Model the fold of this input.
Amino acid sequence: MNEELTTRKAVRLRGRSFLALVLSPELPIADWLLELDDLARRSTGFFLSRPIVLDVAGLPVTRDELARLIDELAKRNVRIMGIEGARPSMLAPGMPPEMRGGRPAADIEVPEDGPAGSGKPAERGQASVATPAGNPNLIVEEGVRSGQSIIHPEGDVTVLGSVSSGAEIVAGGSIHVYGALRGRALAGSAGNSNARIFCRKLEAELIAIDGLYKTAEDMEPKLRGQAVQVWLDGDVLKAAVLA
Done:
């Protein structure tokens, strides 16, 4: 038996950082859920493909109440990957695991649609876009400002300007940025491992393809400020300077 153990291949353990969105419920929970429903109506797809952590620190709820809250979120397609700040008595078997040690990041501003029926975007949170008829790809005519999210799970997203720090592009296909990419770009969000990211100037906070992420500190310094393409090779996110 000892010989078998020594010849068996070792289990490979790897670390990887992910950027998660943190939800912090407030009492009364029913009113908070109504606010969440309103957010979902104003910004369709906002929670799509986002890893979500539920922060319940200081929230006076029981284990059963927490379980009901998680069920209510699941009905809204909000999938909880972990729970932060929970007392041991609040956690039950089958619940998402306890999360600890998260590093603070910039707040995410929720995009808001314009007035119903106006056909105009709001002053903040919604970029001006044009979608050619019969074409699943989305063209953003202007730059994407800080706090804006462009979410297009059906195909590619092309930004003719720059993507500011604190802005986010989520595409089911590839992402093309004709200016500087300073915010977050998540391509292949619907499971497309062949998606790519192209930009004229790489200064991104985070890039991801099919769920594999790299943050700014993980990127090679020589790529910063360069025209770059990013692609997925197996389970490795690769990047190269465009000629």
User: Anything to note?
Assistant: The longest helix spans residues 29-42.
